[in-house]
Amino acid sequence: MNLVFLGPPGAGKGTQAETICKRFGLAHISTGDMLRKEMRDGTELGQKAKSVIEAGGLVSDDIIIGMVKNRLKQPDCTAGFLLDGFPRTIAQADALGGITTIDLAINIDVPEQVLVERISGRRMCTGCGAGFHVAMYDKSTCDKCGAALYIRDDDKPDTVSSRIQVYNEKTQPLIQYYEGKGLLRNVDGNRKPADVQAEIAALLEQLQ
Ligand code: AMP
Asked: Is the CB of 174 under 6 A from ligand 1?
């Protein structure tokens, strides 16, 4: 089962991906998490990506496609994977189609005004990269590894509007792209996480 999660920043892709991957034994591939790790480790790629990410833009297709191509060669992907945050452009989707087969693209739909409120409450772990929301978890340290939590630079209000604009321009067309291939399923993401999860799980049960 090879899946793609589509949806704007703040739709809940990461939260849903974590539980769905555990439940269905899939590899969770978040390009955002991979890039943040590169930045934490201070690699050349991380340094190149930093300014683009902090400005709310997209890292170049070549870099991202190369990164995903390598990741998909890892043994944990043979039983299936879930791509979270990739593809984000038509060029990325075309490249993905040349590397592997996608069984389903799930679009988590959330109205724009809700996204800003959700993103402003988001906190990340400096140690393991786990994500939290202050409405559900208001501590300053991570419950998984104990490291301090922080607010992502690109979650600050000025950058959030750029990210949503970039999403509308570059990524939203992928909804039609996968619809045209008969692979798209829409899920209402403006509900409690458990309800969204139940609907996604039901879609995936049908696929198995
Ligand atoms: P995310 O955690 O998915 O919101 O990603 C954080 C940031 O990483 C994005 O705003 C982009 O700057 C960059 N990024 C993540 N995935 C991609 C991608 N597939 N293509 C280009 N840039 C990406």
From this structure: no
